């Protein structure tokens, strides 16, 4: 109970802080920031100003978090970096390929549009923080948490030992919720306002990202016994791989629900009653996605000019869809690869170098 009160009190304190950060400044910038300075406690204070106040992208509440939990910041940065990387992997064959820009917004003006893409960036980033902080707890990198204290699963074999050092997903979830969501809660928005709708959308998608990690924790076990007989097992709680998280959120992106205000202007409801209500694991969005076929600095679209495509595919990576009907150019590319590899006892592998010519197609 004391822990819950502490987190609740901290949340109230941070909600009262008003943000001074522009709409395009985002904490995702930590994903491309170098964190060596946090490794050295002597560098935490620069003169009389904490390092946290000099970081671009943090809101006022997040800066306060940084000051209270500065040892968590490298983990948050790794989580943001993992989210950016996974976003680019999941959308590598789409017109919008989750490209980044060289400023504190990371994803550019696209985040200002309340579309599916903005929803995905919020979800995957929040999931990245859960994942990274949970793992850092297990590895003993953080002062305020350690190994998981999750209860023994009821269906675990009675002869197996529950007590290995598991990923502390419970702490990672709580910290991600407090750090990521405080940015959205720092301002009061009137009913029916665009700001309130966007805040509610972001909070919902942040939670969907966290649950894509929290609700899918696994049980990992290690065998013990003479000559690997596995007469005894030790088990612990383990995070799902971040690729699994990304795959799950990509499915949620494809099935995202378009929402609008209810009559009172206090709640978001599905726009089309024919579709199911969005659960807390589902993504929601307010606006239709912009046209990603052409470059448009205002929307953040970089277009598909010069993007590689698959001439033989009928999917989104195919030249017809990727190039938006503009056609494509074909050229030859020489690939140099290792081939004819042989294993020699003991113990090395020797390969030859082979060259081959492939056709490459790029959008006009």
Overview of this protein structure:
With 364 residues, the protein is of the alpha+beta class. It has two domains: 2-302, no CATH class; 308-363, Wnt (Wingless and Int-1), C-terminal domain (Endo-n-acetylneuraminidase fold), CATH 3.30.2460. The protein has helices at 2-15, 36-39, 60-68, 73-90, 116-138, 169-181, 194-214, 242-254, 319-322; strands spanning 45-46, 49-50, 161-162, 218-224, 232-238, 257-261, 268-270, 284-285, 295-296, 301-302, 308-309, 328-344, 348-363. Helices cover 33% and strands 19% of the residues. The strands form five sheets. It has a three-stranded mixed β-sheet with strand order 3-5-4, with no helix packed on it. Strands 7-6-8 form a three-stranded mixed β-sheet.
Report the helical percentage.
Answer: 25-40%
Q: How would you state the average pLDDT, rounded?
A: 86
What's the alpha carbon Rg, rounded to whole Å? 24 Å
- Tally of alpha and pi helices: 9
Report how far the terminal alpha carbons are from each other.
61 Å
Helix vs. strand class:
alpha+beta
Spatial strand sequence of the major β-sheet: 3-5-4
Low-confidence stretches: 1-6, 8-23, 41-49
| Strand coverage percent | 15-25%
The major β-sheet equals: 3 strands, mixed
């Amino acid at each position: 109970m004391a822990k819950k009160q502490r987190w609740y009190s901290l949340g109230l304190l941070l909600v009262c802080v008003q943000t001074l950060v522009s709409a395009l400044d985002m904490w995702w910038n930590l994903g491309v920031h170098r964190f060596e300075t946090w490794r050295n406690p002597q560098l935490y204070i620069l003169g009389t100003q904490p390092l946290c106040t000099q970081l671009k992208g943090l809101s006022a509440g997040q800066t306060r978090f940084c000051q209270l939990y500065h040892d968590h910041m490298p983990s948050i940065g790794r989580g943001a970096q993992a989210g950016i990387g996974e976003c680019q992997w999941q959308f590598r064959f789409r017109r919008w390929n989750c490209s980044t820009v060289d400023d504190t917004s990371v994803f550019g003006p696209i985040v200002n549009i309340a579309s599916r893409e903005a929803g995905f960036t919020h979800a995957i980033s929040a999931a990245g923080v859960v994942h990274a902080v949970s793992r850092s707890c297990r590895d003993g990198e953080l002062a305020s948490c350690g190994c998981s204290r999750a209860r023994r699963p009821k269906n675990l074999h009675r002869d197996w030992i529950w007590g290995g050092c598991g990923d502390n997903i419970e702490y990672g979830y709580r910290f991600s919720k407090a750090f990521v969501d405080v940015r959205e809660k720092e301002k009061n928005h009137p009913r029916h306002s665009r700001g309130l709708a966007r805040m509610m959308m972001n909070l919902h998608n942040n939670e969907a990202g966290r649950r894509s990690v929290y609700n899918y924790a696994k049980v990992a076990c290690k065998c013990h016994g003479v000559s690997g007989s596995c007469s005894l097992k030790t088990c612990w709680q383990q995070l799902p791989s971040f690729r699994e998280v990304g795959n799950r959120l990509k499915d949620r992106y494809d099935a995202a629900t378009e929402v609008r205000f209810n009559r009172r202007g206090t709640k978001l409801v599905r726009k089309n009653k024919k579709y199911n209500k969005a659960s807390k694991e589902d993504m929601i969005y307010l606006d239709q996605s912009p046209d990603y076929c052409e470059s448009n600095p205002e929307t953040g679209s970089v277009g598909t000019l010069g993007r590689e495509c698959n001439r033989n595919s009928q999917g989104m990576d195919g030249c017809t869809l990727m190039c938006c009907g503009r056609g494509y150019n074909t050229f030859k590319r020489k690939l140099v690869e290792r081939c004819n590899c042989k294993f020699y006892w003991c113990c090395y592998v020797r390969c030859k170098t082979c060259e081959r010519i492939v056709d490459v197609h790029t959008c006009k």
